Amino acid sequence: MKKPLAVAVALAALAVPAWAETKTVTLSVPGMDCAACPITIKKALGKVPGVSKVEASFEKKQAVVTFDDSKANVALLTRATAEAGFPSTAK
Question: Over the stretch 8-50, which tens digit does the pLDDT of each residue have?
């Protein structure tokens, strides 16, 4: 009787999803050419599920994005900026 219980506990442990983590990434956005560009970039990144904070800088030509890694990833973030007309890469 102990063996089935041990197996059930092991399977339950495997079924529990990994804990999500808040991550921050800096994206290089070299295509920013005016002071209004960061507004477009912030809007595009803000629509990505899991994104909690975006700071975009025209002067630095970058965006700093904080996101929940269980809902978003760098590929989704760079795709969002590219679809808004601003290709980006992670620094």
Answer: 555 445 444 557 799 999 999 999 999 999 999 999 999 999 9
Residue 55 sits in a domain whose CATH number is: 3.30.70.100
Closest residue by Cα to residue 34 from 58, 9, 7, 1:
58
CA–chain centroid gap for 31, Å, is 20
HEC-encoded secondary structure of the chain: CHHHHHHHHHHHHHHCCCCCCEEEEEEECCCCCCCCHHHHHHHHHHCCCCEEEEEEECCCCEEEEEEECCCCCHHHHHHHHHHCCCCCEEC
Number of domains present in the structure of the chain: 1
